[in-house]
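Morning run. Coffee first, then this:
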Amino acid sequence: MKPTIVLVHGAFADGSSWNGVVKRLQQAGYPVIAPANPLRGLASDAEYVHSVLKSVHGPVVLVGHSYGGAVISEAAVGDAKVKALVYIAAFTPAAGESALELSSKFPGSTLGPALNNVPFPLPGGGTGTDQYIKADKFHDQFAADVPRSVTDLMAATQRPVAASALEEKATKSAWKTIPSWTLITTEDRNIPPAAQRFMAQRAHAHTVEVKASHAVSVSQPGVVTRLIERASQATASTTTTVTDSSGPALADTGSGRPATQAITLSGIAVVSVAAGSAVVLLGRRWRSEAKSGR
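And here it is:
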């Protein structure tokens, strides 16, 4: 039985940012849900995603992009159906950390000056602050490797995030008990690559790096899909498998988890070894596909 893939978008995006990934996953036979992330507050957003998970029967691979990574880290805690967490250019906070704190931990983010702050009324009274990326900054800041004809539409339809959501500290860390995979975007101007590497290493995540902007699910949906499939197949495996190295390969810097990891992906050579060693994946086609985003 293939798991249901639940895709959680982050700030300045919506569910349509997963369209290319959804299409590929569905073609591969996976059931997929891409719910609307409210982007109002970390705890409340996580509760909402957790309610979505309750509606799913069978195993789940939970995927988060950007701020969505912080959301899935809280939402998955205590849910035995969630077999893997996949972080796509995402925050992976520990308890007590906020997305804003993590993005500022290393230099490189140029998001602050690109933001437009808009007040909105809070349900119980008072005023909150919504944050948008300015339309004329959106392409270069968020999706520099996506055609402007597309990013113009993305900018107009972006969903704002409440500034308080980015400042809210995490209280739970599902990645401490659930196997995780991370895609690091080396041309990211929202979350510095150094911050992404720090979080991935701390989570002992299977880590892949790709030359891409923050909007990698739009610019390179094939790369994102392949990592999700690998996480799905790895968590469904019970033995270490080595397959034909002539197929597409994924450059993986490995995981520091103490137990031997079992990874299976058709057409990709996988060598999984014990604690402290890297997962090595060999081949050629992956590199060309990573460039093209197929």
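The domain at 4-101+167-237 is CATH 3.40.50.1820 (Rossmann fold). Good start to the day.
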